[in-house]
Write a structure and sequence with these properties.
The protein is of the alpha+beta class. The chain has helices at about 1-20, 50-60, 85-95, 105-150; strands at about 30-35, 35-40, 45-50, 70-75, 95-100.
């Protein structure tokens, strides 16, 4: 009975960690490819869709979801050798795959500006937390010295 509880706990812990590491298609970054910029999810694998690639996929019997000069991205944990036409369709419906068009200059500027602001906010938070920690340490030192005098 004890080993059953331990095994259950280990499995539950592993699944909890695995759920936290799931692919998140809304967590994106900018990819620069062939002089263009694309906004694709972190941890994804991508394929540039040129006319030769599209013709090859069509001849292999795949439904083509992406247009010319777009990037087809999919979850990086998926083995590309196991992707069938049906699996690709399921990946699109589950948000595990998608198409990204080249970003315009205004879109790229907006994304870069937003990321810069997020980084500045993070730096301010880290500075505030460091300052609070230093103040706490200083107060503890003062308390220690005060008690030492008694």
């Amino acid at each position: 009975m004890k080993s059953l509880i331990i095994n259950f706990s280990l499995i539950f812990g592993f699944l909890t960690i695995l759920a936290g590491c799931a692919f998140n298609p809304s967590n994106r970054g900018v990819l620069f490819l062939n002089g263009q910029s694309y906004y694709i999810p972190y941890g994804s694998t991508y394929i540039y869709m040129d006319s030769q690639r599209i013709a090859g996929l069509e001849s292999a019997g795949y439904d083509i979801y992406c247009s010319l000069d777009q990037v087809l991205w999919y979850d990086g944990s998926i083995d590309p050798n196991l992707i069938t036409n049906d699996k690709l369709h399921d990946m699109f419906s589950q948000n595990l795959a998608g198409c990204s068009s080249p970003l315009g200059q205004a879109e790229l500027n907006y994304i870069q500006h937003r990321e810069m602001l997020q980084q500045q906010e993070l730096n301010m938070y880290l500075e505030d937390s460091r300052e609070r920690e230093l103040n706490r340490n200083l107060q503890n030192l003062r308390n220690y010295n005060f008690l030492k005098l008694w």
